């Protein structure tokens, strides 16, 4: 018989009020509280706390406080990762983030969900599906990434987007719901913003 944690990690319906999961969330909140309340000069201490919290980190990463998550151990970040203020990751399932990913302020990544029917919701049934973000991705401010989404490499997600479906590699996508607008090509190497050309 599966435990509630095993059900959660397997993508099955589970009860989040389970004692084991409650203890693990409390442990994560204690670390997050310490992280968010350290003085700005304590860079190394904050980094060490995230190394304890996250399932996987690389050499170069930086997360601006405040930050929030559920468990921490389901979060894996690649090298040269940067997250601006107010990143929220509800990591009831795995959140895998590649190298060279930049995340703007107020981004929310949700792996958790609740049943549509109130009868099941009222019993505190939940479910979770993983989120995957590739390499060299820029996620704009106030973006929401929903459970089960895969974002490819070399992608830009515009500000305010709600990402409900997968985004392929090399795409500019934005909107609510988020949709692919166009492919990012080598021509874009000449411009840093719209028609603003990089001078030689």
Automatic annotation (TrEMBL):
Record carries keyword Protease: no
EC assignment: 2.3.1.-
Enzyme class: transferase
PROSITE patterns: HEXAPEP_TRANSFERASES
Keyword tags: Acyltransferase, Repeat, Transferase
One Pfam family matching this protein: Hexapep
Keyword Secreted found: no
Protein name: Acetyltransferase
Record lineage: Bacteria, Pseudomonadati, Bacteroidota, Sphingobacteriia, Sphingobacteriales
């Amino acid at each position: 018989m599966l435990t509630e944690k095993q059900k959660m990690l397997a993508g099955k319906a589970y009860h989040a009020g389970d004692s084991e999961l409650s203890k693990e969330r409390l442990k994560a909140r204690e670390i997050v509280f310490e992280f968010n309340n350290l003085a700005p000069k304590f860079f190394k201490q904050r980094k060490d706390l995230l190394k304890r919290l996250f399932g996987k980190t690389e050499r170069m990463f930086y997360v601006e406080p405040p930050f929030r998550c559920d468990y921490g151990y389901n979060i894996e970040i690649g090298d040269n990762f940067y997250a601006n203020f107010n990143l929220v990751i509800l990591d009831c399932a795995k959140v895998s983030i590649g190298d060279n990913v930049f995340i703007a302020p107020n981004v929310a990544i949700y792996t958790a969900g609740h049943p549509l029917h109130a009868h099941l919701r009222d019993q505190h049934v939940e479910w979770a599906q993983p989120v995957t973000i590739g390499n060299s991705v820029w996620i704009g401010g106030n973006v929401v990434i929903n459970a089960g989404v895969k974002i490819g490499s070399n992608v830009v997600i515009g500000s305010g987007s709600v990402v409900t479906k997968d985004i392929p590699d090399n795409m500019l996508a934005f909107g609510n719901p988020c949709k692919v607008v166009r492919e990012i090509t080598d021509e874009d190497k000449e411009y840093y913003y719209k028609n603003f050309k990089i001078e030689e």
